[in-house]
Write a structure and sequence with these properties.
Layout (H helix, E strand, L loop, with lengths): L1 H14 L5 E10 L10 H18 L3 E5 L9 H13 L3 E4 L12 H19 L5 E2 L10 H13 L3 E2 L8 H14 L2 H30 L5 E6 L2 H16 L2 E3 L2 H4 L19 H8 L12 H8 L24
Helix pairs in contact: 2-3, 2-8, 6-7, 6-11, 7-8
Length: 326
């Protein structure tokens, strides 16, 4: 009798689906990504609708980080309407500074002022102060004194720093795609679309493995994407890729409950990259870099002027680690 019960239990375990992986989807650079050129009201509305369609359809919980001064030239109404649409889709809005300030080059006092300057718009749209902050360029301080001063300032204002574990070059693909469309280069645009999701899957697979090596278990990941025409076009396929890999979509707040997000993180320097790298570097582990973007993307990107509001990650290696750490 006992043997039969054990057999039934074993069969039930074998038939049960494997535990779902989890990922929190986050977007940077709302309301309008720097790859898309100057802000205009009609493209802002169109991009917002396109990005939100698969989010609504899949009921995907999203946290999106707003540059408070982005599209200010359009006036307050179009920006508020765009952000209100994100809120209506269930998105939580976070602070990404007012001007997309770079902590690697901005004095601490000016950077803190830029954080505060973004708050009124976010509080007015959401009806409450934002609770999450994300560093532009993922630059969290060129030295420990800067890092600690800004982190203490954020904590005093009630912010939780929003980490990223699946960092990637979607911003580079987005620029190449938008530039190809502007120039009428359909071949390059289609090649960029075709290479994007496979590249992203290679990065996801890397960080799945690396998370286990660094944290000791399969952690809930935090994905970084940018508000771009590329992601508006590819987001359904990107979400399907995560589903096929066994992922459930959760909020950023849920992801941060995992003990991995309390691992020591003391990286200071010019690089902007995944917290998995930061944890491993703090622990003194050998570095491993995620897959590079395809050479044709890098070549096309470096052959053009940078998009408004963006800058090259020249302090980083092609696999996302600072050159001095490779």
């Amino acid at each position: 009798m006992r043997a039969a019960a054990l057999c039934l239990a074993a069969c039930a375990l074998a038939a049960a689906p494997p535990p779902a992986r989890r990922v929190a989807v986050t977007f940077d650079d709302l309301p309008f990504g720097g790859s898309e050129g100057p802000c205009q009201a009609a493209p802002l509305r169109s991009l917002t609708r396109a990005l939100l369609a698969p989010i609504r359809a899949g009921r995907i919980p999203v946290t999106a980080f707003v540059i408070g001064g982005r599209c200010a030239e359009l006036g307050e109404a179009p920006v508020r309407q765009a952000l209100a649409a994100w809120l209506a889709a269930g998105t939580e809005l976070g602070n990404h500074t007012y001007s997309h300030a770079d902590l690697s080059t901005t004095p601490v006092c000016s950077y803190q002022a830029d954080i505060v300057r973004a708050e009124p718009l976010l509080a007015a749209v959401a009806g409450r102060p934002p609770r999450f902050f994300r560093y532009p360029f993922l630059h969290a301080g060129r030295d420990l004194a800067t890092k600690d001063a800004v982190a203490a300032f954020l904590a005093a204002r009630g912010y939780t720093i929003a980490p990223v574990t699946i960092d990637n070059s979607d911003w580079m693909f987005a620029f190449v795609y938008a530039d190809a469309l502007r120039r009428g280069d359909r071949a390059l645009a289609e090649r960029t679309l075709g290479g994007y999701v496979p590249y992203m899957e290679s990065v996801v697979a890397f960080f799945e493995r690396r998370a286990v090596e660094v944290a000791g278990h399969d952690i809930p990941q935090v994905l970084l994407l940018h508000a771009s025409a590329l992601n508006a076009r590819c987001l359904p396929d990107l979400l399907d890729m995560f589903r096929a890999r066994g992922y459930a979509f959760i909020t950023l707040a849920e992801a941060l409950q995992d003990p991995a997000y309390r691992l020591p993180e003391r990286y200071a320097g010019p690089g902007g990259f995944s917290w998995i790298h930061r944890w491993s570097m703090t622990a003194g582990m050998p570095n491993k870099g995620e897959p590079d973007e395809p050479p044709f993307i890098r070549e096309a990107y470096e052959g053009k002027a940078l998009p408004r509001g963006a800058q090259p990650r020249g302090s980083q290696g092609t696999a996302g680690l600072p050159l001095e750490a490779k």
